[in-house]
Design brief:
By secondary structure, the chain is mostly beta strands. The chain has one domain: Outer membrane protein transport protein (OMPP1/FadL/TodX) (Porin). Helices cover about 5% and strands about 65% of the residues. It contains two helices and 19 strands. The longest helix is centred in the N-terminal third of the chain and has 14 residues.
Length: about 375
């Protein structure tokens, strides 16, 4: 009879499961979109925007915020279930994706401070929630019955940043990132020789790890009139501590380098309408490839358009985009999504909101994000 629950057993379990993890769960462990305006435009404006999201995405964008600004966003978190068949050590799997719980994905506040802008934010940066079930799995001359594996992880970023103009239409910014990483992996099954139960495995590890990193960025004009801009930001990899029970599962949050450009085309329609285009590359680097939730270096991207209607004493942005998130490790698959959404910006009012969607190409399931912005000075 086997009944294990220790870091050592998790480490040995990792060797087994890494070789058989074929679940192909859509990979949002490093690249969950927190919502807000960028979600509807393929995430392509993260490093060129000037919002409270800039606190983490590109602190240089904070420099364009010249009045106190608060924002929050909510979204559904991804969840999946997987069925395993065939051989225990070389499984055939199929998964289904479902809408998970709705959660606060971002909360931020920015205010002018000493010639620049100071920003504070909370953002969910990664999320995975998968349960694998199986029975009748061959394991040599034995059979595995009642297999249940749970894989869960969520990355929460708490960031304080400062951005300021540095002259000639260029902004710079820097920030401190505190990461809280929740990780859980469990596995249970019964082992049979014919109809005789010859053993049971029940292994679980869960913990919260804490780590610190830095983020820095720059923004500048591509055109002298400021009609188009570029943005570049770098976030360092983050080593975790206090997570001894799960260090063999996920022990290092990858860093991120983002490069993007966005521009405005005026006169695209009547009544002061205008069009915004945006493109962004996101490179995730410095993770650990030998962990159970392995993280290899990957390159994602986003493309999008936003048409802004000026109607009914308000600006109404309508968005469409495409986002590609590559697989970062064993057991994960890439996740490509068609995105779209709209906003409402009433003239002379202190509030605005955005409703955005991302439809997974692989599964057809929808992510939904709802964001609010409040500027009390208006």
């Amino acid at each position: 009879m086997i009944n294990a629950w220790k870091p050592l057993s998790i480490a040995s379990l990792m060797v087994l499961v890494t070789g058989v993890a074929q679940a192909q769960v859509p990979d949002l462990l490093s690249a969950l979109d927190t919502g807000g305006r960028a979600m509807g435009i393929g995430g392509a404006t993260r490093v060129t925007d000037s919002t409270t999201y800039s606190t983490l995405d590109n602190p240089a964008g904070l420099a364009y915020i010249t009045e106190p600004t608060a924002s929050i966003s909510f979204r559904n978190l991804p969840k999946s279930s997987t069925i395993a068949t065939g051989d225990f050590n070389d499984r055939t799997t199929s998964f289904t994706e479902a809408g998970g719980r709705t959660a606060l994905a971002h909360a931020g506040y920015a205010m002018p401070y000493k010639g620049g802008t100071l920003g504070f934010s909370y953002s969910i940066g990664g999320h995975v929630d998968n349960v694998t079930n199986g029975g009748g799995l061959a394991n040599g001359g034995l059979t595995v019955q009642g297999l249940t594996e749970t894989s869960r992880a969520q990355t929460d970023f708490f960031t304080v940043s400062f951005g300021k103009p540095s002259g000639s239409g260029t902004n710079i910014g820097v920030g401190i990132v505190i990461a809280n990483q929740y990780t859980k992996f469990s596995q249970s099954y019964a082992l049979f020789n014919g109809n005789t139960n010859v053993g049971n495995t029940n292994t679980t590890a869960a913990s919260n790890g804490i780590g610190f990193g830095l983020v820095a960025g720059i923004q500048g004009n591509l055109q002298p009139d400021g009609s188009s801009q570029y943005g570049l930001s770098i976030r360092t990899p983050i080593d975790l501590s206090g997570n001894a029970d799960t260090s063999a599962i996920y022990d290092k949050i990858p860093g991120k380098i983002s490069l993007g450009a966005a521009g405005q085309v005026k006169g695209a329609g009547s009544g002061g309408d205008f069009l915004i285009w945006a493109a962004e590359l996101d490179y995730y680097y410095g993770g650990e490839a030998n962990a159970l939730f392995s993280r290899k270096n990957t390159l994602g991207y986003g493309l999008g358009l936003e048409y802004n209607f000026n109607r009914f004493n308000a600006r109404i942005p309508v968005r469409i985009g495409f986002q590609g998130v590559p697989a970062g490790g064993n057991g994960f698959s890439s996740r490509d999504a068609l995105t779209f959404g709209l906003g409402y910006r009433p003239n002379g009012q202190p509030y605005s909101f955005d409703l955005n969607f991302a439809r997974s190409i692989e599964t057809g399931k929808f992510d939904i994000g709802l964001g609010f912005v409040y500027k009390p000075a208006n």
